[in-house]
Amino acid sequence: MKALIERIRCEGRNLGQGILKVDGFINHQLDPALTVEMGREFARRFAQAGVTGITRVITAEVSGIAPALTTGLALGVPVLYARKTRPITMANGVYRAEAPSHTKGGMVELMVSPEYLHPHDRVIIIDDFLASGKTIAALADLVQQCGATLCGIGCVIEKSFEEGRARLAYLNVPIVSLAVIESMEGDQIQVREWEGAVSR
Amino acid sequence: MKALIERIRCEGRNLGQGILKVDGFINHQLDPALTVEMGREFARRFAQAGVTGITRVITAEVSGIAPALTTGLALGVPVLYARKTRPITMANGVYRAEAPSHTKGGMVELMVSPEYLHPHDRVIIIDDFLASGKTIAALADLVQQCGATLCGIGCVIEKSFEEGRARLAYLNVPIVSLAVIESMEGDQIQVREWEGAVSR
Questions:
Q1: Which of A16, A71, A151, B73 has the fewest Cβ atoms within 10 Å of its own Cβ atom?
Q2: Residue boundaries of the structural domains of chain B
C-alpha cells in the first residue's frame, strides 16, 4: 500500500532492538483517512486471495482497534476487540488466551465474550503489527475456542525479519500485510510492498 | 442520534450500581457503520454549536478510540489517543494526568507525547461515556498542559444522573452527547436525545 509505505519512509524511526516507531499514525496518533484506506486495502486483498463470506473481524486492544474498525467498515461486518483487562460489563465464562505484552513485558491475557463470537462465524484477524506472531496466534486460539472458522489474517506492518509469518503457517490461511519491513539498520529502514497479492 | 438511542433501547442492560452494558457496540464489539455515523453526528453538532477550525481530536484508550477515529474522519483531522501504559516507542517528557480506571479500580495515568499536541492546536475531546467527568477532565488537563485550546467535548453516551456535565462546566466549552441516560432502574433505562443542539 503505497501511501502507507511512503508514510513509514517519512516518519518511521528505528529505535533499536527491532522496534519501529510509527506512533504518528499507528500507536498513538491516527490518520483517519489513511486508516480508512488500510481497511479498504485489506478488503480488496482478501477478496483477491479468495477469502469471502466474512462475518466478523477480530483484533486485540489497543492499537489493532483502528485498522480493524475500518476493515469491518469496508466489509460491512462487526468488529470484536479482545480485552486485556476485564471491564466490569464483561461476564465470567469468557474465552481466554495469552499474548505477549508490548508495554509491560511478560504476558497478558486476551479475553473475548462468547456473546460476540459464534461457531457459525467466519472470521479474519486484523492487527497493527506482525512480528513474532504470538498475539495473532492468541487471537487465532480464541477463534478456535469458540468453534468459529478463521479465514484470514491481516496486519498493517509486517516485520519479516521476526518470522511471524512462518510461525503462523500452521493456521493455513492467507496472511495479508500492507507493508513489509525487511530490515532496520541505523537510519536505514527497508520497507516494501507485500508481494502475495496485487497491490494498488 | 436516533440509531444509537434505538440500539441502547434494544441492547443496553442495567448491571446495577450505575453500570450500563453496551459492549455489543461500544466497549467490546463495534458496529462500524454506526460508529461512522457517530463521527458525522459529532461533526454536525459541533458545527451547529459554532465550534470551528478544529485541528485535532483527542481521546483516551481503549473505548474512546473508535468514535474519536470516526470524528477525526468527519472533520479531516488527526486523532490522538492518550495511552494508559507507556509503549516502548513513547519517549520520556510526556504530558501526564490522572483519571479513574474503569477496569482496575483506583486511578490510571493518561499520557500524551508533546510530539502530537501543540500550542497552536484547537482540540475537541471525544470519549465513549460522560459519567463523573473525571476522564474528560484529565484529557482537558493534558490539552491545557501543552498550551493548546480546548474547543469542545463530545461523548457518545452521557449518564446525566452522574452529573459530569456540571463538573466540566468550568471548562466553558460546548459539551455534545449523542444519547443521554437519565436514569436506570431495574429493566427501565430512560434514554433520550440531548437537547442542546438540533438533532437528526
A1: A16
A2: 2-81+117-192
pLDDT tens, residue by residue, A156-190: 999 999 999 999 999 999 999 999 999 999 989 99
Cα–Cα distance measured from residue B168 to residue B175, given in angstroms and rounded to the nearest whole number: 9
User: ∠ CA B70-A64-B91 to the nearest 5 degrees?
Assistant: 95
| Interface predicted TM-score (ipTM) over 0.90 | yes
Residue numbering of the annotated binding site of B for xanthine: 20, 27, 159
CATH number, domain A2-192: 3.40.50.2020
Give Dmax over CA atoms of chain A in angstroms. Answer: 47
- Binding site, annotated residues of B: 20, 27, 131-135, 159
**Dihedral angle sign, alpha carbons of residues B117, B122, B128, B134:** positive
B173 CA: distance to closest CA in chain A (Å): 23
Spatial CA neighbour of A102 closest among A118, A79, A84, A87: A84
A159 is in an annotated binding site: yes
Q: Binding site annotation covers A131?
A: yes
Amino acid occupying residue A152? G
CB atoms within 10 A of CB A141: 16
Query: Domain B2-81+117-192: which CATH class?
Result: alpha beta
The model's pTM: 0.96
Q: Is A20 annotated as a binding residue?
A: yes
In the three-class reduction of DSSP (H, G, I as helix; E, B as strand; rest coil), residue A15 is classed as: coil
Q: What is A97-134 written as a DSSP string? A: EEEE-TTTSSEEEEEE-GGG--TT-EEEEEEEEESSSH
Cβ(B191)–Cβ(B181) below 8 Å: yes
- Secondary structure letter of residue B170 according to DSSP: G
Q: What is the DSSP string of B94-156?
A: -EEEEEE-TTTSSEEEEEE-GGG--TT-EEEEEEEEESSSHHHHHHHHHHHHTTPEEEEEEEE
Chain A residues inside the 8 Å CB shell of B24: 115-116
Q: What is the pLDDT of residues B166-200, one digit of tens each?
A: 999 999 999 999 999 999 999 899 999 987 754 33
Across the interface, whether the CB atoms of B89 and A31 are under 8 A apart is answered no
DSSP state for residue A194 in the 8-state scheme: -
Contact B30 A69 (CB under 8 A): yes
